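Before going further, learn to read the protein records used in this course. The integers have meaning only within a learned vocabulary of local backbone shapes. To see the layout at work, look at the sequence and tokens printed below.
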Amino acid sequence: MVILMGRKSKEERRKVLGEELSKHPFFTDDELAERFKVSVSTIRLDRGELGIPELRERTRAVAQEAYLTLKSLDDQEVIGELLELVVGERACSKLKIDESMVLAKARVARGHYLFAQANSLAIALVDAPMALTGSVELKFIRPVQLGEVVVAVGTVLNRKRNKYTVQISVQVGTEEVLLGNWVIFAIERSDVRETERE
């Protein structure tokens, strides 16, 4: 989506910029400059006037808040860096593919790393002390190369009692590389204790 500002006033542009960054805090200054058809320095000036910090600071603030809202996982169990989490609604994480994650000959990411990132994000979306994956329908669309950054975006599509249907889309830039639908079951601590007694 390109936002064509044309000859809008500085005030109008800044208002729209503030709205965009409140909805999408992870846009870079370069992406914003392209969307608004202005220079990167203009975006930086506008952000400064609006009191909106640079991307690194915005990411850190959102990530800290996201980790605080985790319920079904410990923060060490999330694969990748958690960027956003609204339990029961949506979540986002990123993972940079490094040397330890690729196949030696093909130099592409091993599938289980991409699955683990998506699976942990799906579980993080559940509003319960614990959650388990029931089933997954998964499609790998293209291999992910060494050095690429994958961003997983999860959305809760449906919830019936303790059963969540979650869709996870994993992208490199704007290109989707993995898409899946998860069925996740919320488990209350009392459910676990009853199982242990049996």
Observations:
- The helical segments are 10-23, 29-36, 40-50, 55-68, 111-124, 189-197.
- Residues 10-23 form the longest helix (14 residues).
